């Protein structure tokens, strides 16, 4: 059971062939810089190149940093506004030809992959996945089933929003130390905990590579498990979504 997974982000588009029975990538992961402007056609062309370079002609799952309802992108927070209203099946079929394609939100894909292949703590009960990158992505899962398209990074927070306060991009831009940044993440996670009361938090995104430097500083009462697939969860979740026909 193989599928090509593609993760479209604000800075890079990356993909690999994934074995969905194990969650392992079976080809080397390739990354191409996100084109600027990151319009749907320019990005879809990069996806075509990744798939073609891998010599892959099977199913393709694709994540976007947008709300995707009925396979229409409805938002575009860290990507060109031209994505809003784009019929994503039609877009990718035009670039990839006729084959199985599934498109879903990037954090939703990461959440699906983590509850399936990651820390077993998150497999049962109510889990909240958070991805820290250019923004903050979120996914809500109950016994491994997804409630799609939550946008908790956009929660109004202090004088701004959660993601403008505590994404890893903000850490870089404001040159915050791990302890300074973790304190912000902690405040945001307390707010999420008060509103949603998950049993488990899964924290991912590129910065989960350094989980040891900040996860122990968090004070929420829940178990906080670092994403085991690290920053690859989006690719793996995208592949899983197309095989399982998960198409929000
Ligand atoms: C977007 C979400 C996305 C997250 C992570 C947010 O700004 O609104 O859809 O999941 O960034 O990329």
Oligomer: single chain
Helix content: 25-40%
Mean pLDDT: 97
Sheet with the most strands? Answer: 6 strands, mixed
Distance between the termini: 21 Å
Distinct helical segment count: 8
Please trace the helix and strand order, writing H or E for each element: EEEEHEEEHEHEEEEEHHHEHEH
As residue ranges, the low-confidence spans are: none
Shape: globular
Q: What gyration radius follows from the Cα positions, in whole Å?
A: 17 Å
Percent of residues in beta strands?
25-35%
Bound molecules: beta-D-glucopyranose
**Backbone structural class:** alpha/beta
**Structure summary, number of beta strands:** 15
Write up this protein:
The chain is built from eight helices and 15 strands. The protein has helices at 40-53, 88-96, 106-117, 162-166, 168-173, 178-196, 211-214, 233-244; strands at 2-8, 12-19, 24-25, 30-33, 60-64, 68-69, 72-73, 101-105, 126-132, 136-142, 145-147, 156-157, 160-161, 200-204, 223-226. The strands form four sheets. Strands 1, 2, 3, 4, 5 and 8 form a six-stranded mixed sheet that branches. By secondary structure, it is an alpha/beta fold. 33% of the residues lie in helices and 26% in strands. It starts with a strand and ends with a helix. The structure holds beta-D-glucopyranose. The site of beta-D-glucopyranose (BGC) has 16 residues, from helix 3.
């Amino acid at each position: 059971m193989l599928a090509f997974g593609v993760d479209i982000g604000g800075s890079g588009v990356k993909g690999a062939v994934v074995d969905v029975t194990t969650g392992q990538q079976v080809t080397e992961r390739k990354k191409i810089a996100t084109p600027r402007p990151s319009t749907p056609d320019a990005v879809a062309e990069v996806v075509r190149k990744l798939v073609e370079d891998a010599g892959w002609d099977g199913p393709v799952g694709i994540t976007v940093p947008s709300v995707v309802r009925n396979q229409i992108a409805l938002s575009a927070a860290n990507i060109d506004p031209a994505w809003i209203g784009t019929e994503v099946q039609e877009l990718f079929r035009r670039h990839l030809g006729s084959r199985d394609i599934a498109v879903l939100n990037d954090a939703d894909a990461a959440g699906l992959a983590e509850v399936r292949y990651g820390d077993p703590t998150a497999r049962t009960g109510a889990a909240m996945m958070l991805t820290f990158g250019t923004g903050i992505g979120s996914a809500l899962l109950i016994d491994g089933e997804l409630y799609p398209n939550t946008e908790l990074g956009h929660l109004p927070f202090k004088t701004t929003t959660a993601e403008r306060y505590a994404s890893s991009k903000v850490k870089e831009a404001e040159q915050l130390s791990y302890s300074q940044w973790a304190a912000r993440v902690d405040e945001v996670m307390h707010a999420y905990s008060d509103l949603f009361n998950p049993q488990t938090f899964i924290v991912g995104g590129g910065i989960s590579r350094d989980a040891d430097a900040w996860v122990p500083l968090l004070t929420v009462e829940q178990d906080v498990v670092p994403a085991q697939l690290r920053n690859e969860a989006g690719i793996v979740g995208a592949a899983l979504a197309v095989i399982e026909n998960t198409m929000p």
